Known about the structure:
Layout: E1 4-5, E2 11-12, E3 20-23, E4 48-52, E5 61-62, E6 65-68, E7 70-73, E8 80-81, E9 86-89
Parallel strand pairs: 3-4, 4-7, 5-8, 6-9
Antiparallel strand pairs: 1-2
Amino acid sequence: YRCVENSFGLLYSNVLTLKFTSYWMGAKSNRWEEPANWSCGNVPDANTDVVINGGTPNTPVVSSMAFCRSTKLFSASAIRVNTGFNLTITGK
C-alpha cells in the first residue's frame, strides 16, 4: 500500500507491505482444509505465510488444491500432500 497526497502535486509515501501469517494448530483434525485447525480460523490462501510448529495434536494433510505464500516448518513437524492434490507455494 502507498499513500498519495495531491495538494501540491503528487507525493507518494513509502511502500507498506501487509503480511498474513497463520499457525497450524491441528486441534480439530489433520485436515488442512478445516478452518478450525488454523490460528486465525481461516484456511490459508496464496497470500498467507504458514507456520507449522512441532508437537501439534495432528500433522496437516492436504486433500485439495491448496495455496500459501510460504511455509516454515519447525523440528518434528511435516506437511503431507495426498496423491492427486497439490500445495502450491506462491512466494509472492
